[in-house]
Design brief:
Shape: globular
Distance between the termini: 50 Å
Mean pLDDT: 94
Number of domains: 2
Strand order of the largest sheet: 3-2-1-4-5-9-14
Structural class: alpha/beta
Number of strands: 16
Largest sheet: 7 strands, parallel
Number of helices: 14
Helix content: 25-40%
Low-confidence stretches: none
CATH class of the largest domain: Alpha Beta
């Protein structure tokens, strides 16, 4: 396979993946609409500039059947990254998330099912969000997957999860690929449907398909102007604008932050290895890092005077904890994350310092959540 189509290939993950694949001798075609939320008003972001000369770039939309038809000609594999990605935003822009993530994927599959093509592999960028809350252990009931947290409890500052059967305390465990699927946001639901459609139709059409459940991806090149997703970028832009940081809940909520280079490596392994065919893999660091750790690390790296406040507010659709069990991807594909969080965040901050300070639009995104009743 030499000819690879990457939908959303001008985005953060896609541009980094494109550069690596080109260096390995692949011919890359990119289908991307250069969303202003990611690439800015002039649509001439650093991300786009980094790939426009080394790939065949098609300015188009995954919701347009003709754009897929044009892009898929002569392709050996498709890496489907194009998606709307804001968890909070998905809770009030439901039609847009449904159209791009689900309908856009259906156009890809509809073409493959009804037209002669050369596609021999499909890779879908899935998400840890499809798990909802992660995997836990109850002393009395063993492994459990707790239901969504109750807003009335969170209003009282009770953010932790407890066993739904006995009410006992829970110990966090790494979430493996066989864990319960119960997304707690519209974004998570759309990613689950994308994954299911790609895997089902890949099997039906005889095209090996792979789903990669990315954790929280970060690193140099991440959009610093998108206030809806990417906590490291959001915090960085606020600090460099001289603004304070407001952390949701009690700051102890945690995520698995995975460095962009590790994500690119995992994706290429999924592309090149037959062992990946028709499989689902977590892609993460295997480490849980709290939001407070993120904020304080960035404050130190930027030598910032920003005040970090924790006021107990919370966002509907957010989860408490989730980090990846990586045993499957290690055993089948030989993947091991090479960047621990401190190394990765230091590299990210070094890159941010070289960038022009972007306008801070975070308050605008918060007001949207508040006006919709999604921020408490």
């Amino acid at each position: 396979m030499k000819n690879i189509l990457i939908s959303g290939g001008a985005g953060f993950i896609g541009s980094n993946l494109t550069k690596k694949l080109v260096s390995k001798g692949y011919n890359i075609t990119i289908l991307d609409n250069l969303s202003k939320q990611i690439h800015g008003k002039d649509q001439k972001s650093e991300l786009y500039n980094s790939i426009k000369e080394i790939s065949t770039f098609i300015l188009g939309d995954v919701c347009n059947e003709e754009d897929w038809k044009k892009s898929l000609k002569g392709q050996d594999a498709v890496i489907h990254l194009a998606a709307e990605t804001g968890t909070g935003q998905s809770m009030y822009e439901i039609s847009r998330y449904n159209d791009v993530n689900i309908l856009g994927t259906s156009h890809l599959l509809d073409f493959l099912a009804n037209n002669k093509n050369s596609v021999k592999k499909l890779i879908i960028a899935s998400s840890r969000s499809i798990y909802g809350e992660g995997k836990y252990k109850c002393e009395n009931h063993g492994v459990v997957y707790p239901n969504d947290r109750i807003a009335s409890n969170m209003m009282k500052g009770k953010f932790d999860l407890f066993c739904d059967v006995c009410g006992g305390e829970l110990d966090l465990m790494p979430t493996d690929e066989n864990s319960k699927i119960h997304p707690s946001s519209i974004y998570g639901i759309t990613k689950q449907q994308q994954e299911q459609m790609i895997l089902l139709m890949g099997k039906s059409l005889g095209i090996p398909a792979v789903a990669l459940r990315y954790q929280n991806v970060y690193g140099p090149g991440q959009s610093l102007s998108n206030p809806y997703t990417g906590i490291l970028s959001i915090f960085s832009t606020r600090m460099l604008n001289g603004n304070d940081i407001d952390i949701y809940e009690d700051g102890e909520e945690s995520r698995d932050f995975v460095f962009i280079d590790d994500v690119v490596e995992a994706t290429i392994l999924a592309l090149e290895k037959e062992e990946a065919n028709h499989q689902i893999f977590n892609v993460g660091s295997g480490e849980a890092t709290t939001v407070s750790q993120v904020a304080n690390s960035l404050k130190s790296l930027y030598n910032s005077n920003a005040n970090i406040s924790i006021d107990g507010s919370f966002r509907l659709g957010d989860i408490r904890h989730n980090y990846a069990d990586l045993n499957k991807i290690k055993n089948l594909l030989g993947f091991t994350a090479k960047f621990d969080f401190q190394t990765g965040i230091s590299r990210f901050a070094d890159w941010v310092k070289t960038q022009e300070v972007k306008e801070d639009k975070y308050k605008q995104s918060l007001n949207e959540l508040k006006n919709k009743g999604l921020l408490k």
